[in-house]
Hints:
The protein is α/β, with parallel strands linked by helices. The protein contains 6 helices and 4 strands.
Amino acid sequence: MLNIEIQVQDKRFYFRKWRLKSFCRRIIQSAWKEKESAEVSLVLADDDFVHVLNRDYRGKDCPTNVLSFENAEKPPKGQTWLAGDIVVAYQTVAREAAAQGKTFEAHLAHLLIHGTLHLQGYDHLTEKQARVMETTETELMHSLGYNDPYQDVE
């Protein structure tokens, strides 16, 4: 069982998607493949909040679209795994969606999938890792009725 705690720090997320929390839960659950009972925390924030996290934890002094903080250490069998946190920045998501010709909803869905996969150990540091992760993201997006997030939109 997957428990998803959601904090909406930037209320502008509500203007974009009615039933926001149900949407986020559905997307994260679709990408969750682990069998253990787990908990994921999602924070829907603004660029300023994400900027500080990105600077303090990744050494990058700028906002980014999504951050994942994975807790790779799993608890003893039968205990809930606190898998980690996903943090999304409203302004960056909106800006990127517009620049890429995508809907805010589709771009947010992709970033939630991306962050969820990171919590499960996926990465994109090498070409092989990136290929596996991007293929998985694309398959999940298609299963949810969205286009390939890596395909150029004209």
